[in-house]
């Protein structure tokens, strides 16, 4: 009963905090799209502007889309493991560090996480391993391990609150 109340409180707070709007993630997602060189829609007070599309630094850079699946929590009515839509803008920082801007959709909203991932290339596969602190609800340290190829991105995560998998594919 306490767990149900905590989950209800968590989802209510998340829904209020994560109301739709223009975010850093949405801006990055748009910039990496093929349409990003077209003028941005503006009001009559502002002139349309264009920004150059980012230049990929590796074959893994760009937009990714897929699903997250929990290995710990089950959906309330179906009994299946909880899951949702997942998007990521992935960019290379240097030979061993990568920036991943994730946006995950949940039952009552969405959350965004900006993470620095550590990896090394072996052939055409990038192997990722490490951890990063999550400062949003529910918080904690997320440990991860996974692989990225030019077309497929798999990341297993483990935290005090949840464990699961991200499965993504590259999109244009």
Topology:
Layout: H1 2-17, H2 24-31, E1 62-74, E2 81-94, E3 97-105, E4 110-122, E5 125-134, E6 140-148, E7 152-158, E8 163-171
Antiparallel strand pairs: 1-2, 1-8, 2-3, 3-4, 4-5, 5-6, 6-7, 7-8
Descriptive overview:
This protein has a single domain (2-34, 55-171), classed as Lipocalin. The protein is mainly beta and 172 residues long. 14% of the residues lie in helices and 49% in strands. It starts with a helix and ends with a strand.
Give me some keywords for this one.
mainly beta; Lipocalin
Give a brief rundown of this model:
With 172 residues, this protein is mainly beta. The protein has two helices and eight strands. It has helices spanning 2-17, 24-31; strands at residues 62-74, 81-94, 97-105, 110-122, 125-134, 140-148, 152-158, 163-171.
């Amino acid at each position: 009963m306490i767990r149900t109340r905590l989950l209800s409180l968590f989802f209510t707070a998340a829904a209020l905090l994560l109301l739709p709007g223009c975010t850093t993630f949405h801006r990055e997602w748009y910039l990496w799209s093929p349409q990003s060189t077209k003028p941005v829609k503006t009001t009559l007070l502002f002139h349309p502007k264009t920004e150059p599309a980012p230049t990929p630094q590796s074959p893994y850079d760009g937009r990714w889309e897929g699903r997250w699946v929990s290995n710990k929590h089950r959906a309330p009515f179906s009994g299946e493991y909880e899951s949702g839509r997942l998007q990521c803008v992935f960019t290379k920082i240097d030979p061993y560090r990568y920036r991943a801007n994730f946006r995950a959709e949940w039952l009552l909203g969405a959350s965004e996480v900006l993470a620095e991932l550590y990896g090394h290339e072996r052939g055409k596969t990038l192997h990722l391993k490490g951890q990063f602190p999550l400062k949003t609800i529910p918080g904690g340290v997320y440990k991860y391990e996974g692989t990225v190829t030019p077309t497929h991105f798999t990341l297993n995560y483990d935290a005090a609150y949840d464990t699961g998998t991200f499965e993504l594919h590259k999109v244009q």
